């Protein structure tokens, strides 16, 4: 078993923080997880196995960090309608009873 030196652990924490910030920016701009993966790849991020990021990786990280899939202002405060007035799935279900 090999131990990690403090410098590489620090670098990983900085990279993870930057990745989290990039994912949050993608959510705020309304990008899909796949579009977020393209951005992360362009910025040089890779998975822990060195592979390019995919939409599934971004989705997993969003879930892990508790980030929504859409910007907060895309829905009404009760989360039953989108900002354009159309119903969300939950809102439609409630409306139909």
Rounded mean pLDDT score = 77
| First-residue to last-residue Cα separation | 58 Å
- Which runs of at least 5 residues are low in confidence (pLDDT < 50)? 1-5
Overall tally of structural domains: 2
Q: Would you kindly provide a written description of the structure presented here, covering whatever features stand out?
A:
With 97 residues, the protein is an all-alpha fold. The chain has two domains: 66 residues; 28 residues, no CATH class. The protein has four helices and no strands. The relative contact order is 0.11.
Defining traits:
97 residues; 2 domains; elongated; disordered N terminus
In short:
By secondary structure, the chain is mostly helical.
Q: What is the fold's blueprint, element by element?
A:
Layout: H1 6-29, H2 33-42, H3 55-65, H4 89-96
Helix pairs in contact: 1-2, 2-3
